[in-house]
Amino acid sequence: MSQYYNPNRKRNLYDKNSKGICEKRGRFSFEHIISKNRYDDCMSRTARLILSQSFYHIITRGNNRNTVFRIEADYLYFLDLIAKYKKELPFNIYHYCLMPNHVHLLIQTKNSKNFSVFMKKLNLSYFHYYRKHYGWIGHFWQGRFKSQTVGKDEYFIQCGKYIERNPVRAKLVTKSEEYRYSSARYYLKGEVNDLITRDFMYGDLGKTESDRQLKYQEMVIDDIVKNNYKKTVWGSDKQRYNESKKIKYHGKYVK
């Protein structure tokens, strides 16, 4: 996994993203959690509806909003894990952003069961890594992961840009393209990124790559995207209605 992560990189626990000490929280050791296939016991037990060939905004957070990425090597290792398991359990990533204490993915599933396995492997493998380097004990992730249905319409690409602007809103950078751990540089600067499937609305922004990059830069995020960000379905009112009907129909069969 050499594309993003260099295991020989010198680690600095007193990096700006580090609290300078190894945090130890929770009542159970990791060995206790995973013994007898009990890893899922540390996760929420609410029913989750993930459908095949569907679009989702995925969020996974550190427990109690704890920092999950302290230094650059942590971000890069997590991206390598995504690349590794995405190859094994394929799906599409259109936009993403890794924040210091949580992760955003805008994705399309291929096989719903495969994606759930992907998330479990990703989160568990990264926890092994984090525990090894920082001595963490106890719950690491806040539940399994959150999934928000996203409508496939003209607002889809705006949802992606909204995700990529998280570091700007958090005042980590002044421009999205300055942040290295998101898909913004792919769309704004043409940076090669094998993780990304190009947003299906991006090609309509212009005839040339430079035109598309400029239009993406100038794109204004509609209030519909901002106002529906925390709702069950993210998108236009029409898409939210259609997706809600689909969720209600398929939800009858989720136990």
Tell me about this structure.
There is one protein chain. This protein is α+β, with helices and mostly antiparallel strands and 255 residues long. It has one domain: Alpha-Beta Plaits (2-Layer Sandwich), CATH 3.30.70. The chain is 37% helix and 11% strand. The chain has 9 helices and 5 strands, in the order αβαββαβαααααβα. It has helices at 30-34, 72-88, 112-134, 156-164, 166-169, 184-189, 209-218, 223-227, 237-251; strands spanning 55-61, 92-99, 102-108, 146-150, 233-234. The chain has a 5-stranded mixed beta sheet. Strand 2 and strand 3 form a beta hairpin. Helix 2 (72-88) packs antiparallel against helix 3 (112-134). The longest helix has 23 residues, at 112-134. It is globular and about 50 Å long. The protein starts with 29 loop residues before the first helix and ends with a helix.
